[in-house]
Specification:
By secondary structure, the protein is mainly alpha-helical. It contains five helices and two strands. Helix 2 links the parallel strand 1 and strand 2. The longest helix is centred in the last third of the chain and has 17 residues. It is elongated, with a radius of gyration of 16 Å.
Length: 89
C-alpha cells in the first residue's frame, strides 16, 4: 500500500495476494504471470526506459491510493454497518 502513496509504478506477479486489487494493469503498473521472471525484468526495464509511462503510472498510483486512506476505508465500513443495521441484519 505504501508504494501507492509514494506514487511508484507497481509491478507484481498476479499470484501475489491483493495485487490484482491494487494494480490496474497498464494503468498504474503491470501484473505479471506468476513466476514469469523474464517478463518481470522486461517490464522493469520498460518502466526505466519510458519516463512518460513511468510518470503516468506514478500519477495513477497516487490517484488510486486515496481509495485506501484510513478515512475512506473507515467511511466505507461505517456505511456498510449502517446499511446492515437499517436492514436489521
Amino acid at each position: 500500500m505504501k508504494l501507492l502513496v509514494f506514487g511508484l509504478p507497481l509491478i507484481a506477479f498476479d499470484s501475489a495476494q491483493g495485487a490484482k486489487e491494487i494494480i490496474k494493469n497498464g494503468e498504474n503498473g503491470f501484473l505479471i504471470e506468476n513466476r514469469n521472471k523474464e517478463n518481470f525484468v522486461q517490464k522493469i526495464n520498460y518502466i526505466i526506459e519510458n519516463s512518460d509511462k513511468k510518470k503516468l503510472f506514478s500519477d495513477n498510483s497516487l490517484s488510486i491510493s486515496s481509495k485506501y486512506l484510513k478515512e475512506n476505508v473507515s467511511k466505507e465500513w461505517d456505511d456498510f454497518i449502517n446499511t446492515m443495521k437499517d436492514k436489521n441484519v
